[in-house]
């Protein structure tokens, strides 16, 4: 899995996401490769559950890999570095599955 390729795919395929604000990060797993997709919404969050489902299905269909987590985030909420790039370490921490993840967008 190449994170940058999936990020471009999601940003290109879904106009509801903000360009440059889609992050794919690996998740800790027991012998399997798992990953999360976090994407900022280009608008409001009204259709976030639908969008998350559509992203999950499209990525699974295109790459044969099912994301463990798909989260649609409010505009401007993904962590960035001082140079404006996505902060991948902070994204990994934000995407880590936990009790709140049961309520997360999937």
CATH architect. name: 2-Layer Sandwich
CATH superfamily: ANL, C-terminal domain
Strand order of the largest sheet: 1-2-3
Structure classification = alpha+beta
Rg from C-alpha positions? 13 Å
Q: Which series of helices and strands comes N to C?
A: HEEHEH
The counted number of beta strands is 3
Describe the sheet with the most strands: 3 strands, mixed
**Count of DSSP-assigned helices:** 3
How far the N terminus sits from the C terminus, by CA atoms, comes to: 20 Å
Low-confidence stretches: 99-106
Here the CATH topology equals GMP Synthetase, Chain A, domain 3
How many discrete domains? 1
**Mean pLDDT over all positions:** 87
What does this structure look like?
α2 links the parallel β2 (34-41) and β3 (69-73). It contains three helices and three strands. Helix content is 33%, strand content 23%. The protein is globular. The chain has a single domain (3-103), classed as ANL, C-terminal domain (GMP Synthetase, Chain A, domain 3, 2-Layer Sandwich). The chain has helices at 3-13, 48-63, 88-95, and strands at residues 17-27, 34-41, 69-73. By secondary structure, it is an alpha+beta fold. The chain has a three-stranded mixed sheet, with helices on both faces.
Topology:
Layout: H1 3-13, E1 17-27, E2 34-41, H2 48-63, E3 69-73, H3 88-95
Parallel strand pairs: 2-3
Antiparallel strand pairs: 1-2
